[in-house]
Amino acid sequence: MMCRRLAFCVLALVGVMALASCSGDSGDEASAPTTTQDSSGGETGGESGGDAAADVDWCTVLDKAEIEAQFGEGGAVSEGTPDDVVAGCEWEVGEDQSAPGTGAINVSNPVGASVGSPEERFAEYKASAIDAVDVPGVGDEAYYEPGFAAVTVRKGDTIFVVQASFIPEPEGIQAKVEALAAAAADRV
Fold it and tell me: Which of 41, 115, 164, 181, by CA, is between 20 and 30 Å from 109?
């Protein structure tokens, strides 16, 4: 379990570090609240740099039945637990996390420090991804990163990641994670 969280945190940290290194701004202005317009013309903003994901309850974007439909062969699926390491939620699959076929599903906001528009941030994430594969029909844009079994989605001003952490990875993991990302995108 700790290795799965560590891998997920490393993914989120790499994205934040990549954006921070590109900003070129070393003053306090980088941490100042900003205001942007959302797709309805209303203003969003605050400490999250206008990232709409700050208002999402990540434990409500998927439910146990959806996860069981994709990964239930690994065992019973837990209730979603807010993740105190990253802004997100985690569901465990299987009671004995050391048994083959068990794992976890994580949904979270990888943004942390926001630099640029959601479209620009998403493009930066995708550019830094290894072997990114476009996932059409999920949110406004999405890609799958095979090395992390993760789909990164942008829907409007919200960017989030759905990641499956299983050892060994179940057959068809990409399609399964894409299906969960599509379900989550419908609720964001």
Answer: 41
Q: Which residues are CB-neighbours of 166 under 8 A, at least 6 positions away?
A: 71, 74, 93, 101, 102, 103, 104, 149, 173
Are 153 and 58 within 8 A, CB to CB? no
pTM here? 0.72
For residue 108, name the pLDDT band (cuts at 50, 70, 90): very high
The answer to whether the beta carbons of residues 113 and 20 sit under 8 Å apart is yes
Q: What CA–CA distance (Å, rounded) separates 164 from 120?
A: 25
Dist CA 8 CA 16 (whole Å): 13
Q: What length does the chain have?
A: 188
Distances (CA, A) of 11 to 66, 109, 110: 24, 11, 8
Q: Tens digit of pLDDT for each residue in 21-51?
A: 343 333 333 322 233 333 333 333 333 334 5
Q: Where are the domains of the chain?
A: 2-13+49-187
Long-range own/partner contacts, residues 18-21 (CB < 8 A, 24 or more apart): 18/124, 18/125, 18/128, 19/113, 19/114, 19/115, 19/116, 19/121, 19/124, 20/113, 20/115
d(C-alpha 138, C-alpha 119), whole Å: 15
